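assembly run, all chains below
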Amino acid sequence: AQSVAQPEDQVNVAEGNPLTVKCTYSVSGNPYLFWYVQYPNRGLQFLLKYITGDNLVKGSYGFEAEFNKSQTSFHLKKPSALVSDSALYFCAVRDITGGFKTIFGAGTRLFVKA
Amino acid sequence: DGGITQSPKYLFRKEGQNVTLSCEQNLNHDAMYWYRQDPGQGLRLIYYSQIVNDFQKGDIAEGYSVSREKKESFPLTVTSAQKNPTAFYLCASRERDTQYFGPGTRLTVL
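ok done. output:
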């Protein structure tokens, strides 16, 4: 069965420090991986995706993610956090069993303190 | 939130009533999806549609119904059979592998 896990419910970081939001996955075959961000009472916004190619993927708002096949991880990173980055972050994987469905993690809440 | 609109933003329903949530997109995407979001549980798939006049049940379809008569529109009806309908409902459409989301509708049952 395909799945995605976000081991941290919450991440706290000081403004200006680097941030990492963790994600691990379990899929059969090559994974299609995604990161989304959600601000309060809003829909999810697409940040970036990994399909193939370079393991380091760059996305919106200065975020990037590193695909690590041996560790089955796809951690989201940013070199210098902003207070405005505080939000709920979802990792997701494409469900290849059919229907072009996407499986979402439970989400990690990021707090960036000024 | 791009070219996907959901209405209303907030919806209140009395127990025993059916309500319909609207989802419209002008992105010319074939596939559309409905999710339910509860605190701490991420997103759960209710229904999805790959093409007009076709739709499939997701993981939690009981108590919900949909239609897909037009490419642009994928309304969701929450019926009185849904035991615990209070939640945040998200609609999405898909381009290739990536889903794009609307702003959501918060449904509260009084």
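Chain B touches chain A through 27 residues (CB under 8 Å).

The first strand of chain B starts at residue 4 and ends at 7.

not gonna interpret more than that til we talk
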